[in-house]
Design brief:
It is a single chain. The chain starts with 8 loop residues before the first helix and ends with a helix. The longest helix has 24 residues, at 47-70. It has helices spanning 9-19, 28-33, 37-43, 47-70, 75-85, 90-101. It has six helices and no strands. By secondary structure, it is an all-alpha fold.
Length: 104
């Protein structure tokens, strides 16, 4: 199993907003191994294939976020620019994410 490098809270919020979900880096195998055999069979893929997909997804997301950091942008800057396109605040843009993930 690979080392786990945890996403920050800002990164988690960004990833959920942009990609619909998040799996901790380095914990892809553990995540997939929590699926039942029946669930894995329904996908039509092997466990190893699913693990590799999650690893690749995290690498792509990590590179995407890294590119923003290299341009001295925060994830808030990125979300703020997107919200402005919709004439919204970041809070309004993220409201569906918070509503969806709220434990209340």
């Amino acid at each position: 199993m690979r080392n786990i490098t945890e996403w920050t809270n800002d990164e988690i919020i960004y990833i959920i907003y942009k990609h619909g979900g998040v799996v901790q880096r380095g914990a892809e195998e553990k995540f997939v191994n929590n699926f039942s055999d029946e669930t894995v069979e329904k996908t039509g893929f092997t466990r190893q294939y699913l693990i590799n997909i999650f690893i690749e997804m995290n690498e792509i997301i990590s590179e995407e976020i890294g590119n923003y950091y290299q341009m001295d942008l925060t994830l808030h800057d990125v979300l703020e620019a997107e919200a402005a396109q919709y004439k919204m605040t970041v809070e309004e843009l993220l409201r569906p994410v918070f509503d969806k993930t709220s434990f209340h």
